Each structure stands twice: as structure tokens, then as C-alpha cells.
Amino acid sequence: MSVAWDSSDLDLAELVDLIVECFDEESDSAKISGSENVRRFEQLMPILVERIEEDLIEYNISSNHIQSELREFLDGLKTEAEPGEYFSENFEEFKQQIRAIKSEDYTIAFPLNLNFSPGRKRGEFSALGYRIERVPRREWISQFEEVAEETEEEKHQRPSDDPFSRFMTESPNEFSRNYTYWKFNIEARDQDFAIDQLEIVLEYLLGKLNFAAHSGTTEGISIDNSFWPSGWSDLKLPFIYFVFEGDEYTQFYYSEDFTPRDKFSVHSIRRSQFDRYLDEFPEPEQPYNELEETFVNAVRTFQTAISEPNREDSFLEYWRCAEQLTLADEDDDMKTVIQRAAAPLEHENPELFRFRLQRAREKRNKLVHEGPDVSIDKEDQNRLKSVLDHLIDLYIEKFDDWNTKDFEFYLDNVGVDAGNLKQKRSELFDQIEILEEAIEAKEYEPEGLEKILLDWARHENELEGAEFLDPLGFYIPVFGVGDDDAELMVIDRSPVYPLGEDTDPIRERSRVRGPRPNITEWSLEGLREFNTSLVRDGNMDGIWDVLRGIAETAECDAEDIYIIPLFKKMGDSMNLRK
Q1: Among 126, 159, 271, 399, which is disulfide-ready with 282 (CB 3.0 to 4.6 Å)?
Q2: 463 plus 507 within the same structural domain
């Protein structure tokens, strides 16, 4: 029977134990032998890396490099009796191993098919806390393009062995004057991280640029003489990157999307909208909170959708973006996505947008379950993109004011009937008033005699084995209510519970119940005629401390306050002690 190694039920220690078992016990080079061990290692190692990646985010290291370092570290745990427990308890050792890797300054240069009108050129962009600087074409040629070309030629004796030369020959793209050229600087522990981070930044930046340029538009009839398929937008990730470590060229990377990067520019009638969205678009920085992570991922997905040349793949990416922006999780069904996505559009034409989303849902399900036989046309994409335009615009408007729960609450309620919303609002206002009263009671600070007596009650509640006759009862609130002319109250027995616990009582206390006089307005004479407490087997030192405080407030002796009218009424002849 095969074991589900990737089960989410495995905790960190169990994962480590299973991985360490894969290493050859006799080898000192992290060797793994046997197909079963190799299979298990390849399945479990990425899961472990994913579990610990967040704790290593500050070190700017790629997942591949983490896995390489982790393999070496785990191989060293073979002699531990419980390697999983050791790893969990000594994770700082592995972090020290990562910190010991020297960081390097990387510069990555690349072309973008982004073109500006005269007088509207931009020297840099910012995205996700990083800057991307524009490079003049002459500098691009002399400092990047020619350096990469010459270095690659030196590495390979024959032109046919030169991967850079071969790639440029086969690619439909070249370093055109219609392109603009850019560089990105980052400190990292390996160049894979630098490239990965740049692609995340560019996906967000290009998603922002594409939204700013295309929001509110639909894809119409186009005439394209090229046999290359094209997406809604031609603005997409670079076709090539040159990586420099310090001043030294190290490597080039190329995109697996080999389609042409045709010139992209913003139409003159949309420049005002374009500039406005660039100014308003959120710019979160790591570490992201929940809302920021949701929005960053959604914008990156939007970029993939709008630039994807395959219409079916593009449609599925648009739908995935809708799922992200409507905060749908694995427990939500398709109807939740439709209801939330259509909600912001209810004021325009609710039936129309629900129809559009319902049809998009049906197409999505057919595409997933029936495959290539299902066709997606421009209208299918237009319907879905129009919904995303409104959702992204909502996020931009409320990004600084709402959190994830606020967006979810709004999307769940904005489509509800106005009468039901008013009723819900009334109920919420009632609950707010109750909460305000509860907060006021929690934050209430008594003063003067009231504070002294309340402190006494709190002191009394801490005593175990004592029995009190408590005329105040010390229910909260007890002060400021009642009748000055109230008769002395009936005495009975009440259980005393530990503070904050609903368990068996720790003792019984004699408590006075009935109408409560407003003791805060009593005169000294009133105090003398009202016995504040009678204690059997209690801590008299604490009681007398309180009585002395009351006496000081009333400018009299403590003995004058502690009198016995109540005793006489009860027929109690017990002696008083100081």
C-alpha cells in the first residue's frame, strides 16, 4: 500500500523524520539510493521547504538554494535519535547556516516593449518596494548587450555552441528601438532569488500598467497579419534578462513565452485615466498582510490573463483572478464567486451582470471538465474582464480603509435588498450600544469612598475560608443606585466562585440582598447607622486597613464608623476585633 507522503496531516517533525530516512546511512555526502527513497524525497522536500520559507524570507534566498542547504543540514541529522524533534527545537542552527551565505549585489537588465509618447517618458517605476530604473539605449548597448554577447562568445569556441547567439537567431524578438531598457538592483544570496523576485515585481508592475491602460475597455475587432497568437494586451514580461553579479556578467535568462513583443503604448484618449491609476494604485511592501497578499496575487494573475495569447488559458486566468478578488476559499462554491463578483455592479444592471457571470461560470466548468472541445470567444472574455475592472477599482478605492474581512463583508452584503440591509443595520446599532455599555463598565474607575469600598470588596473576594455579611452585595454596578431611605436588607447565604471561572464555589458567603441605598451620597451620620461589614473568621487586618481609609475620607476615627446597629437588628452578640 502506498503512503500519501504529501499528506497535510504530517507535522514538521514527521516530515523531517521521513526525509532523513531517505539518506544513505553510510554516506557522508547526502546521498540517496533506491527509487522509493528518491520518490519520497522529491515529494516531501518541496513541502518542507514551503513550510519553512516564510521564516527565511528576510534572507533573500531562493527555494532551490534553501532546498540545497536543507539537504546538507538534514543529512547531518542521521545520527540523531529523533531528527524531526531536533530540527524543530534547533531551527536556529539552520538559520545560522543560511545567514552565513554571503549576500551579493545583483543587477538585472532587460528590455520592455513599453513605449512612451514624446514628453511623457518615465525615468523609473516603483513596485512592491523596489525601483526599476530606465537605461538609455546607448548605455544598454555598451554596458549590457555587448558585454553579454562578448562574454558568451568567449565561453564557447564555436558559434553553434553559443546559447545566446542561438537564442537571438531563433527568437522573433530583437533589441528594437521601439523598446525601452531597464535595470533592477537587488541584494540576494543567489541569482535565482534575484530573477524570481524581479519577475514577481514585473508581473505586478505590468498588471498595474495594463489595468491603467485597459480598464473599462472591451476587446473589439482587430486585424492582425501575423501568424503569432496575441493576447488582449501586448505588454508582457521581457523576452530576455542579463544578470550581473557586481560588475561581472554571469548569465542570461530567457522567457519561455517566445511570442513577439510588439510595441505597446497608451492611447492618447486614455492617458488621463492611465496617469490617475498609476498615482492611486496600491504599493504594498513585504512582509504583506492578508489583504496585500491577496491583491498582489490577483494583479499578477490579471497580468497573466490579459497578456496570455491562448484564449482558453486567458479565460481561466481571468476566472482565477475573480476567485482571488472575491476572497473565495476552498469551502466556497462557484455561486459565492458569482454573488460577490456581481455585488459591486448591482446598481448598474444586476440581471445583466449575473447573467454574464453565470455564463462565464458555465464556460469555465465546461473548459475544465470537457477540455479543448469548448471554445472561448471575445465576448466570454469581455464579460469576465468587465467584472474584474470593477472589482480591482473597488480594491484601489478602499485599500487603505478596509481589511480582508471588510471587503468580504461588503461583497456579501452590497447585493442584499435595501430593506433587509436597514434591518441588519438597526440590529448592529443595538449591538454596538450594548458593546459600548460593556466597555464603559470595564473601563469604569470609581473614586473616593466608592473606590475604597469597591477595593474592599475585591480584597474580600480574594479571601478563602471567610464568611461575610456584605450589605452592598457587590454586584456590578452597585453604586449610584437605590434609595437613601431603604431599610436594612435581608441576609441570606450565597456561593462564592473563583474569579472568571464557572466551577464549584470555593466557599459560601452571607450576603445582603434587597434594595440598595445610594451610599456615595451618605453623610458621616449615615455611615454610622449602616454597618459596612461583619466578618466571621476573616482577615481583620485587611478590613481595618479599608476602614481606616474610609475614616480618613470622612475625617473621623475608624472606630466611629465600625458600629453595631446591624448586629442588634440581627440579634448577634459577637465581639468585634481590631
Answers
A1: 399
A2: yes
